[in-house]
Amino acid sequence: MDTAKDEQQIRAVIAHYAEGMRTHDVATLKRAFHDLAILCGYLGDDLIAGPIAALYEWVETNPGPAATGEPYACEILKIEITNRTAAASLRETDLHGRVIDYLHLLKTGESWSIVSKLWDAES
How far apart are CA 15 and CA 95, in angstroms? Predict the structure, then answer.
């Protein structure tokens, strides 16, 4: 296991996620997520859960921060790697406020991808 190389690749996956969310570009988001990824979290008091296709649909039907001029930031707080699995926590800020994202990643062959996204508002 080359931890430094794996961390660099995970950071690149997270960068695709952040850029996809900033620009609302589904093709960029798909570079970050596994085809079978799931998501679950809260937007206000509303629970959102489902396959990753739900995020892609939402992104396609809503303008992103790059188009609206709304603020957007994504900061990596922590990355933990265990062989072919990893967990990353992020602080994401957009027009909905500040949330903490927990991403679970899986290494398939030599590539990392996000298999689940869990989030809630930061208290």
Answer: 19
Please report the pLDDT score of residue 96 as a whole number.
80
The model scores a pTM over 0.90: yes
- What CATH number does domain 3-121 carry, 3.40.50.1970, 3.10.450.50, 3.40.50.12780, 3.40.50.10540? 3.10.450.50
How far does CA 62 lie from the centroid of its chain?
Answer: 17
Give the number of residues written for the chain.
Answer: 123
Report how far residue 82's alpha carbon sits from residue 39's, in angstroms, rounded to the nearest whole number: 21
4-25: per-residue pLDDT in tens? 999 999 999 999 999 999 999 9
